[in-house]
Amino acid sequence: MTEAEFLATLRALPLHPGARDLRDDAATLGELVLTTDTLVEDVHFLPTDPAGDVAWKLLAVNLSDLAAKGAVPEGVLLNLPLSEDGWDRAFLAGLAAALAAFGTRLIGGDTVSLPGGAPRVLTCTAIGRSARAPARSGARPGDQLWVTGTIGDAGPGLAAARGEIDSPDLRDAYRRPRPRLAEGRALGQVVTAMADVSDGLLIDAARMAAASGLAVTVRLEAVPLSGAYMAVKGADRAARLSAVTAGDDYELLFALPAGVAPPVAATWVGAFAAGEGMTLTDAGESLPLPGRLGWEHDGGAGVAD
Ligand SMILES: Nc1ncnc2c1ncn2[C@@H]1O[C@H](COP(=O)(O)OP(=O)(O)OP(=O)(O)O)[C@@H](O)[C@H]1O
Ligand SMILES: Cc1ncc(C[n+]2csc(CCOP(=O)(O)O)c2C)c(N)n1
Ligand SMILES: [Mg+2]
Ligand SMILES: [Mg+2]
Ligand SMILES: [Mg+2]
């Protein structure tokens, strides 16, 4: 079963009104914003990644969802396995540093053991506060699509973490993403819709459009690429398609009415219109959509369904 099929079935279960129909980055309970994300060894990080960086990424991917709702972090709950002493100690040191860097605190959690040889699985639940938590579903026809920062670094960053290419900048983008908390708080006041980019710019823009009941056009030539990315991959059409489908960006993707300038540094990458589906253009030319728009989990790996 695919992730999308699984979520569609979950939507038929009794849903809390704060669940936002399971189509958002986070749930809301009054001003509280609640989100949870898991990192799995060999799916989300490498066994060779430093344990302190895994702690950083665990917090960062969760706080990124709070950022997308314009929230100030209140604290985190952590569900963690004990593994090897050295790894666990380095993880705890990295965790202390990440909590301090992100200005947040522990609320609680749970600690378990793993069967021998099992991959590590680490879960964080982050809680924040936001007076106005923008939804993925709020875009209006005519709104423009914007993104913070640059897109695509974590794709070749994984190759760098594997030692296949030499780029400390790209490797760090993969291991130590920076949640856009300050930008999210400023944007939360003005955007019509917002999400973070975890699975890929195309798939996350398509989800925003679908949740909003709209069509979206993405302008490939406008997608911002980093110097480190272009040094390794170039900036041609293939490089751009790779960047917008790689995922692990943790930048903010948001909608604003035409003519409204974002209050933070961001790049205009597309627009919403009445209708449905995604159109991809490159300098005015319409392109066929790539076979995959981004990352989707699948239960097919060796397990019959
Ligand atoms: N197993 C599950 N049980 C209940 N709700 C789920 C489950 N998996 C996902 N959801 C819900 O589905 C929606 C989309 O989740 P998703 O994980 O795609 O968002 P995200 O965390 O922003 O993205 P990513 O996981 O790629 O960072 C959210 O409302 C989330 O709470
Ligand atoms: C070892 C390794 N292989 C591949 C990837 C790429 N990747 C895995 S999950 C995901 C989407 C975000 O996760 P989720 O949707 O679960 O929040 C992406 C882009 C990686 N990070 N590490
Ligand atoms: Mg998200
Ligand atoms: Mg998630
Ligand atoms: Mg995902």
TrEMBL record:
SUPFAM superfamilies: PurM C-terminal domain-like (SSF56042), PurM N-terminal domain-like (SSF55326). GO terms for molecular function: ATP binding; magnesium ion binding; thiamine-phosphate kinase activity. Gene3D superfamilies: PurM-like C-terminal domain, PurM-like, N-terminal domain. Keywords: ATP-binding, Kinase, Magnesium, Metal-binding, Nucleotide-binding, Thiamine biosynthesis, Transferase. Mg(2+) 4 binds at D25, T35, D65. Residues 140-259 form the PurM-like C-terminal domain. It catalyses: thiamine phosphate + ATP = thiamine diphosphate + ADP. Substrate binds at H44, D248, W295. One of its GO terms (biological process) is thiamine diphosphate biosynthetic process. Transmembrane segments: none annotated. Residues 24-129 form the PurM-like N-terminal domain. ATP binds at G109, D110, R136, S198. CDD domains: ThiL. Mg(2+) 1 binds at T36, D37, D110. PANTHER family: THIAMINE-MONOPHOSPHATE KINASE. Belongs to the thiamine-monophosphate kinase family. HAMAP family: TMP_kinase. This is Thiamine-monophosphate kinase. The gene is thiL.
